[in-house]
Structure formats: C-alpha cells, structure tokens
Amino acid sequence: MARVLVIVPFPMDADNLEMRRAQLRSVRLGPGMDFDFRPVRIAPVNYVSQQDSVLSDVGILEAGIRAQAEGYDAVCIDTVSDGGMAPLRSVLDIPVIGAGRHAMLTALMLGDRFSILAMWDRWRHLYTKTLAELGLGAKCASLRSADLQPDNQSLMAGKEEAFFPALHAAALRCVEEDGADVIVLGSTTMHQAHAYLAERLPVPVINPGPLTYRLAEIAIRQKLTHSRASFPRPAAPADAALAAMGVAATRL
To answer: Which Pfam families is this protein grouped with (predicted)?
Structure first.
C-alpha cells in the first residue's frame, strides 16, 4: 500500500477537513493508494500578503517535515499557492507535489494558452509569482476573478446558487474575450464548482487538488522524485524548532 500525505493549509475541524477529503471522489486512482489529510498548525488567516506566504511556508513545512519518517511515499500540498513545496523538497526524498505549478504545466499539455480563474482578486499575487518562476507569463491568457469572498473552512457549501454562475460567467470571459483554451481553477477551495464548470464550458477545466493525487500516484509508480540539484538539503535540520513552533501555535 502506497501512502500519500495531503497537507491542508489551514487548521480545521473534522467536518471541514472532510470537505477537503471530498476531492478524492473527483479522480479515479489505481489500487493500493491510501491518502491521509492533515491540517497545518501554523497558518495565516488568508493568503493576501507576503507575510502570509512566509507563515504558509513555515506551517506546511512543519506539517510535512516528518512525512518520510512516518512512512509516507509522497506529499501533496492542498493549495494553489504551492506554499511550503520548495522547503519540503529540500528535506524530503519522497515526491512533493504542489497544486499550482502542476496545474499550469498540465494546462499546456491540453492547449496553447490557459487562464486562471480565481474567486478573489487579492489572490492575484500568488499566481503571478508562480507564472514568473516558471516563465509562463506569455502562456497565461488572463487572470480573472469572480470577486467572491472565499471561505477556507466551509468552502462553497450553501452558496452554490450564487457562486457557481458567477464563476461560470468569469470563465466564459476568459475563453471568449481573452482567448484561453484551458481553464485552471485558482484554488483547491473551488473544487466543488469543477463539475458545474466542466459541463458548461467549451474548454477543459483543471481541478488542481485531484490532479496532485494522480501525479503523486504516477511519481510513486514510476519511482520519480525532485532533483537534489534544484533542491539541496539544508545544512542543519530544523525539525525540533519547527515542532516547537507548531505546539506554540496551537496554544494561541
């Protein structure tokens, strides 16, 4: 049995964690794959500033730093920001899959130009950072937002009638006005809208969270992981310090 740890980028209770786990129903995986979902202990309220990005990196690193020692075969990061991905790759030998960059790269397997459909314009900096790192600015037709206040806990539950049509309208503009031939959902918190959008849009719609599960399975079965040339090991382990920070965060 291959074990995959999915790191959820916010602290949350069991009911809200189950809404994240529901992403597994969106992808058909092969036999012998087991997924555990773990919320972080250290996190920002939301991802709207550079300070938030630092907290995200620390929290996700703290949550996953012992994944290999705990017997996991891969790690998936349940945020399109890819928070903590690079730090975790520096300390783990097992594959670490970030939802953002892998969704964008997969979009280019399906079309020539993609648009990122976000709920909230204040997330724009997360996408421009990844696009710059990958050198994909010319391949991004647009970044459009439906101007909806996100909820990282209950997601879209109870708001589907208002949120789904608004997202569809913004996505149509990406296709008809901006020339996108693939849509990338800008957050794993949007996964509940994927089926609605995929049925109504004339182009493929990438659901980043479930995509990471499939990519983790492929990496495990093909015995692939990140390059040490790109992600060198740290000079000194920080497991104890990070664990202490995690304990301190739960007391706040």
So the answer is: Asp_Glu_race
